[in-house]
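hey m, so remember when u said the tokens were messed up on ur end? i reran from scratch. heres the input so u can diff it against urs
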Amino acid sequence: MIIQMKRKTIARDISWLSFNARVLQEAADPSVPLRERIKFLGIFSNNLDEFFRVRVATLKRMTEVGKKNMHMEIAPGKILDEIQQIVLEQQAEFNRIWEALHRELEKEKIYLITEKALNKEQQKFVLSYFEEEVRSNTIPLMIESITHFPYLREKSIYLGVVLSRKDATLKRKYSIVEIPAKANGRFIQLPSPPGEHHIILLEDVIRFNLKSIYSYFGYDRYASWVFKVTKDAEIDMDSDISTTLIQKIEKGVKNRRKGKPVRFVFDKQMDAGLLDYLIRKLNLSRKDSLIPGGRIHNFRHFMDFPDVFEKRGHRKRPFVHPLLKGAQRVTDVVQQTDVMLNFPYHSFHSIIDLLREAAIDPDVTVIKITAYRLASNSKVVNALINAVRNGKQVTVMLELRARFDEEANLEWKERLEIEGVKVLISIPDMKVHAKACLIKKRVNNHTIHYGFISTGNLNEKTATVYGDHCLLTADRHIMADVNRIFNYLEKPKEGIQFLKSCKTIIPCPTDLRKELLKLISREIKNAKEKKPAAIILKMNSLSDETLIEKLYEAARSGVEIKLIIRGIFCMYSENAKFIKPVKAVSIIDEYLEHARVFIFHNNGSEKVFISSADWMVRNLDHRVEATCPVFDENIKKVLKNILEIQLSDNVKARILDNELSNRYVRDRKHKKIRSQLEIYNYLHQKSNAIPGLPSFVDTEPTIIGEAPAV
């Protein structure tokens, strides 16, 4: 249900909840393998946690100070009320799906055993496991005896325990126990009958041992319920000029523990007295986000559910790009022709190979790279460190304010600097979100520049599940602008002119907004002159009201608009004044669609761009982003074909309509097209081109392979 008002756009936060509902749809889809459906429940839960930590927390702050954001047409308090209603409805749907999946697990002879259903052998195992592995990590807190209510970790779950005696000789007491899932894992596999898998959750191991934990206090009855708290995760950056940015971020990360609670999720069967006590002590009220749920919480852990399933097909393995397959060195190919890597279909190892080659190439003198989110054991970092050890000048722009990666990036900063890497850190009031690499090579007294521009993070782990594009190039115009971007990053106070002087790459925050307005205006002009006019856009989020209004104008002028938006979509796609209906879809499937691609018809001379920027105020006006044109005609065709396949998806695509219905696209007249499968087949077919023919020569896409039934 949308707030019914005469509005230009859909409220951003309501649209985001609609996106998370699409994630929940995947968990409900019987064609998705059972393990993946459970994982989607975990993704949904993790997404919602972050939504409350960031967006709901921000809205609550605005409500407290009576502030209305200039980009919001609805008061924050009204949006919070709408959020609460939607979240409760989604929680009910989540519980229904989990109950159904629970039954499916039992059909597969996979059983989640509670502490009350253990057989004698399992009871003995649980007692032993608790004593050997869990007891030392378990500290009960008698909360009524503590002057100040204890700090609760927001990523943890807790057991709220009521202690009593059957003979009522002792007054009831309340206690809480943190579940040490980080130390012990959430799932423990029990001794099981042949052909079966019995699994117990860590909180139920603790429940079974409550008598042992509280034996000192003389009680003989123990009732317990799970709850968790979500807190405001915003990092407040004070204006103290005596502290460095690093110190402010370190302080902000530590202060997150003091964040105000923004959501309290609890077992709806919880003892009423205990519930009231916890709400009071957490300074919450019945008006706050109090979410009653089932027995299990923190479903994000279910993304790591034990792999006890029968093997029924495997995720397709990434393959080497055809231009790089068989090449002795990636560097040699890139210096001859542009190469577009399309993740997760193409292997990310080619990026690692490029960096490793640069690290040992005696002619390479400089490597500069941006880093937003890195893998935990980053091969990118290892290659850069190796380059330093080989005498190269290595510069890494490390964004310390990448949300929820602040601590990891602080650690990377320390390690890189120890090795001799020059580390650039965040620019005040500006996040660096561009994904770029510049490599300088000196040959015969001549400097050659090559590297890459990407839509995604330099993270080999997420590159196996995130859909992104990465252009490897030695184009002198593109690389000259990459060099200008790094000049700005190295001298941000006086170097804004470096961004403004870019001639090929369109950077944020200086130029992208006005350039996009020009490109859309050109399509409007062509439409009015009865010339072909079309725009195809793919991105994660579309919420910028200025650009949305321009797209409305284009639709009213007869421009054909096709949109592929994964997440936030604030534009109304249906309007009687649109000459041509706007086609807007969202694809949620095995891979996370993360790429940004912009295509403008331009009267037949198509302009094609890849970008790190979504169409949001934060990206366009408050981040350093890079939008790069694609010049190679074959790469243009491949990108357009990939988008056309996605626009033809009638299995995993949902219609983005004004009602936020998330209806699936269904086309019973044609074969089923599951775009991620078809893109894999399309690119793999090109990778296995007929010997003797140039493998980079493009053909029209051939849709092969039937998608699973739905």
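this time it looks ok to me. The chain is about 35% helix and 20% strand. if urs says something different then somethings off w ur setup not the seq
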